[in-house]
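Lecture 7 notes: from sequence to structure.

We start with a single chain of 63 residues. Read the sequence below before looking at the structure.
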Amino acid sequence: MSILFVLIPLALVLLAGAIWAFFWAVSSGQFDDLDTPAWRILTDTDAPSRPRTDDAEHPEEKG
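Now the structure, written as tokens:
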């Protein structure tokens, strides 16, 4: 029964921390745009890479 004197205040502290973390995330804009990051991976915006030359692949064989 005496463990309740430890667990109840500990639970209240953890609850207060979770509520604070939620309101901090909301105020800092963590939930502003939930759709764009999921679609960003599907878009092809990377620049094409340049083909490598033989000198770039084996610089030690250069005579």
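The longest helix spans residues 4-27. Keep this in mind for problem set 3.
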